Please model this.
Amino acid sequence: MMLTMQEQLNLSIDYVMFSQNNLTCYWGNREELTDKQRKNIKEMGYKYRGKNQWLYFQSFEAGYYPYNMNQDEVIRMTNYFLNLELALQQYESVQVDVDFEKGEMYYFEFGEDKKSWNFGAKPLPFSSFQFGNLIITDEELMADLRKASKCNAVLEADIAILGVSVNDKKYKRPANPATCMIADAKSGMMLKCELQQPEDDTIVSLAEELIGFIFQYGAPKEVRVSNILVEAGVQQICQICGIKLRRVKKLPIIEEFREGMRRFM
Model:
């Protein structure tokens, strides 16, 4: 749902793609494949020719760069395709009436006896991207935030995923770092750009960076964000401190900094 609502949520396509947790089957071009993927195809005796004819697979996991599937994932993907084949055969032979445009889905699942299959149409279990607000429960922290001094700063706050493969022995696969960024909208200066570890909760990290700014310099007059996910992460902090929280289409200081990082990498 994050993918389908990417434009509505005003999220970058990089952020959306690299936040997925899935196993993906692609038909692409030869140059899209890694050396390892081309080697696997050759060893298995397959040959592909032409545009969008090269079959390959990738494993997506938030915090990491898309990678080759491991043995467990290959076994799971094989089972998924075997069941998909059965589901499609049943769908075509029985001609199940499913109103996809009205939010229905085709389901194909084991019956209670775990030997037979049930199938048909049912409503989608969800129809929008689900996310939650970050809630602070530490009473002492909230009391300190209420007493924090004020300042006239106007901040931009955002999270970005770099889209680069970082190899390190401490990671189980190549990492794809996210960054938490805070900028001063008046001076155009970047105040914070903190790289995250793969398992870090980036929304929590950004909230911590904002709290750190408040305790050091005072609560800013305004915090600007560009999407609802970041807004939900800092909303309570802004309410407690009396900060105006504004969602805007673009964050010019952060976007300029991000473009510079892309050119450097």
